[in-house]
Specification:
Elements lengths: L2 E5 L6 E7 L3 H39 L1 H12 L3 H24 L6 E3 L2 E3 L2 E3 L2 E7 L3 E4 L13 H9 L3 E4 L5 H19 L3 E4 L2 H9 L5 E5 L2 H13 L6 E4 L5 E4 L1 H20 L11 E5 L2 H15 L4 E2 L3 H15 L4 E9 L4 E9 L16 E7 L2 H9 L4 E7 L8 H8 L2 E6 L37 E7 L19 E3 L2 E3 L2
Parallel strand pairs: 3-21, 7-8, 7-10, 8-9, 10-11, 12-13, 12-18, 13-17, 16-17, 18-19
Antiparallel strand pairs: 1-2, 3-6, 4-5, 6-20, 14-16, 15-16, 21-22
Length: 498
């Protein structure tokens, strides 16, 4: 078998780990463990799973120094960023413990037998139940919060599903460490609820494993599309929830540009370069009015971005892709590189701003360039701005900068927000709060526009509805039996609160 290596992006030093790529037997064992854990997780019940999630969070925080050091050695993201990410990871686990105890995620409904205008109705009871074991594909840019112990895993465990995580090759040592910390908590209670597999072929085979009932992925469009096609081509297709990048457009109205060009430019620059520009919510396109106010905003943005030092990309491959992406953007007719923009042979990337003066955003301009760069498209009027926005694909976010009572660019506002999963006003899209009302998803390149990968309702991806008709009480889940319960449910059409 092939040994696993890891590279420190800050130094370029590569080391061989005491890990090997997962072979077919190892993958089968991981899937089998997740299947067995699924049965035990469901038997724990909501409160038991809530306590388990809280214990995992406690264990990760108890190993904070070790986990942050491991992640920094593989990502060069820095201790401040990684400590914050570990806190977010623990928060997500505890948040889903709250979701479990609150219970409304079950969507429990009871319709007792009775007469209706359509004739007699049988006793019907419905709620959501776990799909079964799930696959999670770890993200490169979040070695904790969107990887082995991240939000997808937390939601799946909360649902009652065992998990097999395909580790990202950018941080295998971190993946192994946090998996071992998690196992110390889960193994005595439900067995190996979270297994980790390594290697390209293991990732391909995982989505095709017959026992796996759903898969989630955060990463590139090419990799996500390939896995989605494999999931759909199975004898029994499974849902594939992929977040495959986002352009995250920003629209600045003429009034907003005139009133606060410098302020908007400073905040936009900070959002573009945050985390080395390696966030899926990085603003990739800014629609800025032509004229003096827009000129001032663009000049301030270019200056702010140029003042930011180069930072290591997560991998050398990502640095190369950034270099190629900048070249392709600058080669578009009507586009010009205003500031910065390079990738060194050692993998450091410097931020850039590309200005575009043309009629339509299409082709390379409408695609994500992963790294610290944004395209500023200048618009003459509302109709021109709307035409520019119409060329953009689906997106996680859309941001509007408006003044109070601002009625400017109505067509552009409608076009920018038409295909967005989250609409922001006078704020920046980097940063995704873990909350009940959060939605992190959108039309393609999200593979499923109905569901979110962040927030309470992300648990819905790993559940399916089942109805029981005329069932004896002993056959019913506890949540569907008559009598008082500690969570909301609908009984005979009336919402009943605990």
């Amino acid at each position: 078998m092939t040994s696993i290596t890891t590279t420190d992006p800050a130094t370029g030093v590569r080391r061989t780990l005491d890990l090997e790529e997962t072979d077919s037997a190892g993958l089968a064992a991981a899937v089998s463990a997740a299947t067995a854990a699924t049965t035990r997780l469901q038997a724990l019940g909501r409160t038991g799973r809530a306590r388990l999630l809280e214990s995992i969070a406690d264990a990760l925080e108890a190993r904070r120094d070790d986990v942050v050091a491991a992640a920094d050695s593989e990502t060069a993201l820095g201790s401040i960023r990684l400590n914050g990410e570990l806190s977010r990871t623990a928060f997500q686990l505890r948040f889903f413990a709250e979701v479990l105890r609150e219970g409304s995620y079950l969507e429990a409904v009871i319709d007792h037998a009775g007469d209706t205008p359509m004739g007699p109705r049988p006793d019907l009871r419905r709620m959501l139940v776990p799909l079964g074991p799930v696959a999670v594909y770890a993200a490169s840019n979040f070695p904790l919060a969107f990887s082995v112990p991240g939000g997808d895993t937390a939601a799946a465990l909360a649902a009652g599903a065992g998990v097999v995580v395909k580790a990202h090759p950018a941080h295998p040592a971190t993946s192994a460490l946090v998996a071992s910390v998690t196992a110390e908590v889960t193994d005595p209670v439900v067995g190996r609820a979270v297994s980790v597999v390594y290697g390209y072929q293991a990732g391909i085979d995982l989505v095709q494993a017959p026992a796996i009932r759903a898969a989630s992925f955060t990463g590139s469009p090419g990799g996500g599309r390939a896995l989605a096609e494999l999931a759909a081509a199975r004898p029994s297709p499974i849902p594939f929830y992929g977040e495959l990048g986002s352009i995250n457009p920003v629209l600045v109205s003429p009034a907003a540009a005139a009133a606060r060009a410098d302020t908007i430019a400073a905040g936009l620059a900070a959002s573009i370069v945050q985390g080395g520009g390696q966030f899926c919510t990085k603003p990739g396109i800014a629609l800025v009015p032509a004229g003096a106010s827009g000129d001032a905003l663009v000049a301030a943005l270019a200056s702010a971005v140029a003042a930011v030092d180069a930072k290591p990309a997560l991998t050398l491959g990502m640095a190369d892709a950034y270099r190629d992406g900048l070249a392709s953007l600058a080669a578009v007719p009507g586009a010009s590189l205003l500031s910065g923009g390079s990738a060194s042979a050692t993998g450091s990337t410097s931020p850039a701003v590309v200005e575009f003066d043309g009629e339509e955003l299409a082709g390379r301009l409408a695609e994500e360039c992963f790294g610290p760069v944004a395209v500023v498209a200048r618009y003459r009027d509302d109709e021109h701005a709307a035409r520019l926005a119409a060329g953009l694909p689906g997106t996680l976010t859309a941001t509007l900068f408006l003044e109070p009572g601002d009625a400017g660019v109505p067509a552009a506002r409608a076009a920018v927000t038409a295909s967005a999963g989250r609409i922001l006003y006078d704020q920046y899209p980097t940063g995704v709060a873990v909350a009940w009302a959060q939605h992190h998803g959108g039309p393609w390149p999200s593979t499923d526009s109905v569901h979110t990968s962040v927030g309470a309702t992300s648990i819905r991806r790993y559940l399916r509805p089942v109805a029981w008709q005329n069932a004896p009480e002993a056959e019913l889940p506890a949540e569907l039996r008559d009598g008082p319960v500690d969570f909301p449910r609908r009984v005979d059409g009336v919402l009943v609160l605990p």
